[in-house]
Automatic annotation (TrEMBL):
Keywords: Cytoplasm, Metal-binding, NAD, Transferase, Zinc. Binds 1 zinc ion per subunit. NAD-dependent protein deacetylase which modulates the activities of several enzymes which are inactive in their acetylated form. PROSITE patterns: SIRTUIN. One of its GO terms (molecular function) is NAD+ binding. This is NAD-dependent protein deacetylase. Zn(2+) binds at C128, C131, C149, C152. The active site is at H120. NCBIfam families: PRK00481.1-1. Its EC number is 2.3.1.286. The gene is cobB.
Length: 240
């Protein structure tokens, strides 16, 4: 049986699916990923993106951080694509129990998904570090320099996990719970190179681990089904 046919059959048979996705989920919405040929890491900046998006750089050079952040991380006009919509449909049909994402763009929720575990936070949430006041992504985008709290004037930080920062433990625990109870785990659009997120598939106990990615990953040999294709090509064939 062809791989995609096998995938569709497993989706049909399964009642407890979890999806674990990375940047490749959103590239079809026009959001660049970090490691592909066209990704952010291959564009020229004064500092490498890994440096700019680190906790220490944010503390030491907040103005430069926000210049990069506004230009490259705030893709507020991006719309969900077929993969986002199909996942939301599967959840509505009661087959998909949760989405675990490394993305910070909020597109899963925009497509209608309810149970989304955002491992790396979201650009849509920003908080004053002094008083906790919420600040919208639109306000960040249209501010200049380092954005300040409209209430107390304190510095505002995006609710995203920067390099050198730990993941939210509650989000991580929820992800482990859903993955460990899934009868089918679909991993898509991620290089599975960033830990601790990549280690989450270790908690899957079933025999329907599907890896969908255009390029090879370090976990390919562990997959029960490997599909090297774009997510949109595969998910567009799902009938909910």
């Amino acid at each position: 049986m062809e791989a995609t046919e096998q995938f569709l059959q497993w989706v049909e048979e399964s009642g407890n699916i979890v999806f674990f996705g990375g940047a490749g989920v959103s590239t079809e919405s026009g959001i660049p990923d970090f490691r592909s040929v066209d990704g952010l890491y291959n564009q020229q900046y004064k500092y490498p993106p890994e440096t700019i998006l680190s906790h220490s750089f944010y503390r030491q050079n907040p103005e430069e951080f926000y210049r990069f952040y506004r230009n490259k991380m705030l893709c507020l006009d991006a719309q969900p694509n077929i993969t986002h919509f199909k996942l939301a449909e599967l959840e509505k049909a009661g087959k998909l129990k949760g989405v675990v994402t490394q993305n910070i763009d909020g597109l899963h929720q925009k497509a209608g998904s309810k149970n989304v575990m955002e491992l790396h936070g979201s650009v849509l949430r920003n908080y004053c570090e002094r008083c906790g006041q919420f600040v919208s992504a639109e306000d960040i985008l249209h501010s200049e320099g380092v954005p300040v709290c409209p209430v107390c004037g304190g510095p505002v930080k995006p609710d995203v996990v920067l390099y050198e920062e730990g993941l939210n433990q509650k989000t991580l625990q929820d992800a482990v719970f859903y993955i460990s109870h899934a009868d089918m785990l679909i991993v898509g659009g991620t290089s599975l190179a960033v830990y601790p997120a990549a280690g989450l598939i270790d908690y899957y106990r079933g025999n329907k681990l599907v890896l969908i990615n255009k390029s090879a990953t370090p976990m390919d040999a562990r997959a029960d089904l490997l599909i090297q294709d774009g997510l949109g090509n595969v998910f567009s064939q799902i009938e909910c």
